[in-house]
Request: fold
Amino acid sequence: YPAHVSIKDGSFQFSNKSKLLYDSPLLKSMADASATSWSATSALQIESLEYKNSTFENSVLLSLNQPFNLELGLEGYKLDIQPTYVVLRANTPAGIRYGLQTIGQLLDATTDAKISCVTIVDFPRFSYRGMHLDVSRHFMPISLVYKLIDELERHKMNVFHWHLVDDQGW
Reply:
């Protein structure tokens, strides 16, 4: 569960005019990937653009905190969904990635590309969140490994321990 959730009235409606804005070049690849993913799941054409201090109405703004927010730490984020815009703030790109996963989960839960207004503050309780895969003794197809890594990201895990070889398997 998130560290803090505050539910508000209203909802944000994604449309073909919705944009995914980012304020740092570090966030470009994540913004592009999320816009592509959300467009595929919601049948909308969401565009990813660099934020140039203009209005961000009908947009999702990704912003790195300046100065550093001590409450959020390295992997935390604050997501503020309003009826006319969404703002996702974090101290690092890792926090932005986890916040984007949350927005994606909210979008997956709806059929009309509408997400409820809410403020979510979330940060991990444990620094090591991961999974171990032993392909040394139990061979698995590469497609399963890719799918597993995607699921780890979706669940905000940060470590993939891949046991490739062992004395018996070697």
In short: Helices lie at 28-42, 93-108, 142-154.
